[in-house]
Design brief:
Elements lengths: L2 E5 L2 E4 L4 E8 L3 E9 L6 E7 L4 E3 L7 E6 L4 E6 L8 E9 L5 E3 L3 E6 L1
Parallel strand pairs: 2-11
Antiparallel strand pairs: 1-3, 3-8, 4-5, 4-9, 5-6, 7-8, 9-10, 9-11
C-alpha cells in the first residue's frame, strides 16, 4: 500500500519560515515533491525533486523555498522561507512511482501566512 504522510504545516507571520516533511512508503518514486491549492484556485506545482536530485520550482517560490530528498529514507522536505500571505494554501505531497508512473498524493497540510 502506497502512502505519503505529511507533517509540518501551520500558521506563521509573513516573513517567517516553515518546514514541511513527507514520508513516503510502498513504492520507489521517480519524483517526489509538493503541490499546493489555494481556495478557488487550481492545484499547482510548488517544487519537485527527482531520484537523481534534479529540482524544479515554481517561479513564485524560487529563491525562497528549497526542497531536499533522502532516497534511503524515502522522505522529501520543503523548507519555506520569507513566506508571503499568497503562499497560504493546502500543501500536498506528491509522488510519481518509478515503474508504473502512477501519481500518489498525501492528505494535505494547511499552511497559513498572516500579514
Amino acid at each position: 500500500q502506497v502512502q505519503l504522510v505529511e507533517s509540518g504545516g501551520g500558521l506563521v507571520q509573513a516573513g517567517g519560515s516553515l518546514r514541511l516533511s513527507c514520508a513516503a512508503s510502498g513504492s520507489i518514486f521517480r519524483d517526489l515533491g509538493w503541490y499546493r491549492q489555494a481556495p478557488g484556485k487550481q492545484r499547482e506545482l510548488v517544487a519537485s525533486v527527482s531520484s537523481g536530485g534534479t529540482t524544479n520550482f515554481a517561479l513564485s517560490v524560487k529563491g525562497r523555498f528549497t526542497i531536499s530528498r533522502d532516497n534511503a529514507k524515502n522522505t522529501v522536505n520543503l523548507q519555506m522561507n520569507s513566506l508571503k500571505p499568497e503562499d497560504t494554501a493546502i500543501y500536498y505531497c506528491h509522488g510519481l512511482a518509478e515503474w508504473t508512473m502512477r501519481h500518489y498524493w498525501g492528505q494535505g497540510t494547511q499552511v497559513t501566512v498572516s500579514s
